[in-house]
Amino acid sequence: MSRLPVTKTPKPYVGGAFIRSESGRTYPLADAAGAFFAHVPQCTRKDLRNAVEAAAKAGPGWAKRTAYNRGQILYRLAEMLEARGDEMTGTLVRFGAARAAAAREVAASVDRLVYYAGWADKYEQVLGNVNPVASPHFNFTVTEPMGIVGVIAPDAPALLGLVSLVAPVIVSGNTVVALASEATPYPAVLLGEMLATSDLPGGVVNLLTGFRRELVPTFATHAHLRALSAAVGPEDAKTLRLGAADSIKRVRIVDATKPADWLSARAESVYAVRDFLEFKTTWHPIGA
Amino acid sequence: MLAKSPSAALRRLFDAVGPVDAVGIEERVAKYGTRSIKKHAKLWGLKTAVSMVDLTTLEGKDTPGKVASLCRKALQPHDAGLDVPRVAAVCVYPAMVRHARRALGTGTGVKIASVATAFPSGQAPLKTRLAEVRAAVADGADEIDMVINRGAFLAGEFATVQDEIAAVVEACGPAALKVILEVSELETYDNIRAASFLAMQVIRPGDFIKTSTGKTSLNATLGNNQVMIDAIRDHYLATGVAVGMKPAGGIRTAKQALTFLVAVKETLGDAWLTNMRYRFGASSLLNDLLRQLAKEKSGAYQAPYYFSEAAESY
Amino acid sequence: MPTLAKKTPARPVSRPGRPAPELIFGDLWPFDPAPETADPKLQPRYDLFIGGRFVAPQSGKYFDSINPANEKKLAEIALAGPADVDAAYAAAAKAAGPWAKLPGRERAKYLFRLARLLQDRAREFAVAETLDGGKPIKESRDFDVPMAAAHFFYHAGWADKLEYLAPGRRVAPLGVVGQVIPWNFPLLMLAWKLAPALAAGNTVVLKPAETTSITCLKFAEIIREAGLPPGVVNFVTGAGEVGAAVVNHPVPAKIAFTGSTDVGKLIMRALAGTDKKLTLELGGKAANIVFDDAPLDQAVEGIVNGIFFNQGHVCCAGSRLLVHEPVADAVLAKLKRRLAVLKVGDPLDKNTDIGAINSAAQLQRIRDLVAAGESEGAELYQPACRLPDKGYYFRPTLFSGVTMSHRIAREEIFGPVLSILTFRTVEEAVEKANNTAYGLSAGVWTDKGSRILKLSTELKAGVVWANTYNKFDPTSPFGGYKESGFGREGGRQGLLDYAQLT
């Protein structure tokens, strides 16, 4: 008689812990073959609020880490994903990807993390500068993280889309509350398990599962979220921008209805990091 | 652990008077220059500046004759028609004090100031410097312009600096004292502010602090004037002791003098707009003040050689 | 020889029976009036500037521009309607292609010309600015106009160097840009908006504030003198409805707005369903933090400059003074003495430090908030200066005993009103400074270098002035965190907001 496998309860990764929705709600997730896979927590606006609190708690410490340290942690994350690459590939295949495409997506996700890990201690040198003002002052412009950033991942590619949006945000010291692909949430759950073992402080990345129609309005209006990075359609984009106006939130939209080549090198750039930075300019007199 | 010695106390005092931001001071004083002084305000300012001049000759080639003509200029800067006041004082070397006294007589209101204490370097034994002060006072000096011991100041020996000033105060007797900080050698505004307090703590109401000897590259500027009048203001408000101020050297034009007076008006207020509390140590300034007064009166720009003792011959 | 032991430097500050020493800032030496007499060369009526020509508004309607210093009419300004805004955008769209294709070197020369022509007519523009807006001639002459020229000069040189703007990427113009600017620095804000937009190869439709359109329309004369191709810059004038038409028009690829946070939110909502880019430079409630080791006299100058510059009509005004408890009394005393020699009055007088409030409406808003401050229990101080009989004036005002729950500590007053709060520790200073939805600017005064760097890191503000305040430069990016807006103006960062990465 064959052994009965132990199934896993998928749990979103929030504040460094694996949680269930405060509402107790779940929705059944089937794999590509239509077979029942698991019950996925249907996170609510209160879960989103709690995730923002977790991110707020983690933020100051994360932003104070040295750039070198943040770079190493992102690289460690790449190591984790690479090490469990087969498992992730298998998951993507189970949810409908061809094996080669799944392997490509996992490899690209690892490479994307390595790419942004390398930016950690360089973007400042590219984006900031000293300004030659016409008065006896030393004047310099540096970047700072914005704070807590809401991320809404595209439905597909479930892993690479999420990684591509999260990595440029956290590399500079922001924290993230992300909503996983609604269609394929499980890779995000798996990614959360890797985050938990990657030296990334709890609360820096918080991954929710659930429904966009339920959570987008809260992402839009939660005033403590200082920016949004969302791969959504025009409807959701408008909702996000309307809500963002109340607290002058920065919004970066990737139009999910247009074909996007997440694998290409153009999907990664220092300007994605820049989109979630504030520029701060400091003046000081030069005199004895 | 906090040291308890007197020098250490002074060292802490240096911190207690607070720092000065150089760029900020220069921004502040640049605003004085934008004040537009017209008509009555200009006449009043020019005449007041004349009354504040310490008409100065401090040269190796000074003679009794030169000093005598300076004294006549001090008593009557220009012909009576211009209606200008007498200057505040003549300022001469100690050896010239008795000649000045002879030329001026007494009761004219014009004071005799003498630079003493081994002016300008101050590099003589204290005993010698004090003797020089006493001699100048004995010869008829009403005011003594002393130099501080910059070497001691820069070496951090603040107690020495202050003790020497106190000794000169004593040697002055009835004569008023002006303490020259020699700002260009102190170099920083922080030093100038600290040195101002060092002096003010031991001088008397009616004594002065003064920027410079006029013998170094940089003399009175609006910046160091401001640092010193800020210090005078703070000292007055804390103790009630009103100390006077004398910028010296480098103030050559009426426009400059008016700008310095604006600084006084806006920092120390009306009570310092008098030669009892503010002086200009200058030689060529007086004629430019007269020249501008004559222009205000006649409406025509004046040639420099219309005014006596003019240095310009072109 | 006396010894230190004998000295008693600590003389009593106040002796029984005698008043404490005080300075006299009286009338011994009053300044005579010194009005600036240069001719502002105003026209009685200003039309819209569209397609390189002055054109009458299609409605035929005009409104009056008032001198806030004496409430007299200065000129009539065209009231643009939707059809005029259409025409302006059509002209801008027509000009966009050729302007973008013009070699950068040639575009640069146009901008250099604008800078030079403005310098040539600097005094004339300064007088016009002062008449129209009420700011002291000293400021329009020494700050607004030269700084506006400097912005054109700085950005001119970028036009042919755009490949250095975004390392790793090439940049292209956005196309047509719509811009709406406020009344506090009319010409300077115009320069901040136009110069980077044009340098990056965009064409522009700009709306000045309705109370201060004159220097904008005078600048149209300079645009003609410079020979700028028709349609590259277009000006439409009027109030909020015209601004809404500029913002909501389908043509512009980007909207740039400087003004209140409330209007900024309206614009964000209006653009929510579009792909238009947006930059916002909005309100502020800056903390100016003074520590006990600061150079106090220079700090007082910085506080005065921070809140009374341009009558406090400055989005980055240092309107909340946070002063370290050990020096709180000393700083307040010094501030009061400094206020005693500030001259409030005729903006055209060269000696005026504080001019007229820009409009009757703004004066009313200031009065309302000051009344709120008094009724909430803060202690008010105003110097006893005389104000002119006609015109909109307000005395420089200090409120002490303010807490973070007072309205005057939270709301932007946009007037010469300073709220003074105290703090005990560095951490408390940072907390209070950041306890606001705004984040435009902040000031720090301390002699300790490492503390400056710590605060400049922890203050959530786009500009931090350390041991100085209200300094601006074309090379120096300006803009806010949080609800003070997004995007920067000035420097490399500001210019990139007018380009797209390709």
Give an account of the 3D structure:
The complex is a heterotrimer of chains A (288), B (314) and C (502). Chain A has 288 residues and is α/β, with parallel strands linked by helices. Chain A has ten helices and twelve strands. In chain A, strands 9-8-7-10-11 form a five-stranded parallel β-sheet, sandwiched between helices. In chain A, strands 5-6-12 form a three-stranded antiparallel β-sheet. Chain A has a two-stranded antiparallel ribbon with strand order 1-2. In chain A, β8, α7 (186-196) and β9 form a beta-alpha-beta unit. The mean pLDDT of chain A is 97. By secondary structure, chain B is of the alpha/beta class. Chain B has a single domain (18-298), classed as Alpha-Beta Barrel (TIM Barrel), CATH 3.20.20.70. Helices cover 48% and strands 10% of the residues of chain B. Chain B is built from 13 helices and eight strands. Chain B has an eight-stranded parallel β-sheet with strand order 7-6-5-4-3-2-1-8. The longest helix of chain B has 18 residues, at 222-239. Chain B is globular and about 65 Å long. Chain C has two domains: 45-282 and 482-501, 3-Layer(aba) Sandwich (Aldehyde Dehydrogenase, Chain A, domain 1), CATH 3.40.605; 287-466, Aldehyde Dehydrogenase, Chain A, domain 2 (3-Layer(aba) Sandwich). Helix content of chain C is 37%, strand content 17%. The radius of gyration of chain C is 24 Å and the shape is globular. The model of chain C is unreliable at 1-12 (pLDDT under 50). At the B-C interface, α1, α2, α3, α8 and α11 of B face α9 of C. β12 of chain A pairs parallel with β18 of chain C.
**Number of helices in the DSSP assignment of chain C:** 15
Largest sheet of chain C: 7 strands, mixed
Taking Cα atoms only, what radius of gyration of chain A do you get, to the nearest Å? 20 Å
Low-confidence stretches of chain A: none
CATH topology of chain A: Aldehyde Dehydrogenase, Chain A, domain 1
What percent strand of chain C?
Answer: 15-25%
Taking all Cα atoms into account, the compactness measure Rg of chain C is 24 Å
Considering the protein shown, what is the CATH homologous superfamily of chain A?
A: Aldehyde Dehydrogenase, Chain A, domain 1
State which percent range the strand residues of chain A make up.
15-25%
**pLDDT < 50 stretches of chain C:** 1-12
Total individual domains of chain A: 1
Given the helix and strand composition of chain A, which structural class is it? alpha/beta
What topology, given as strand order, has the largest sheet of chain C? 14-15-16-13-12-17-18
**What is the helical fraction of chain A, as a range of percent?**
40-55%
Give the strand line-up of the largest sheet of chain A: 9-8-7-10-11
The CATH architecture of chain A can be given as 3-Layer(aba) Sandwich
Net shape of chain A: globular
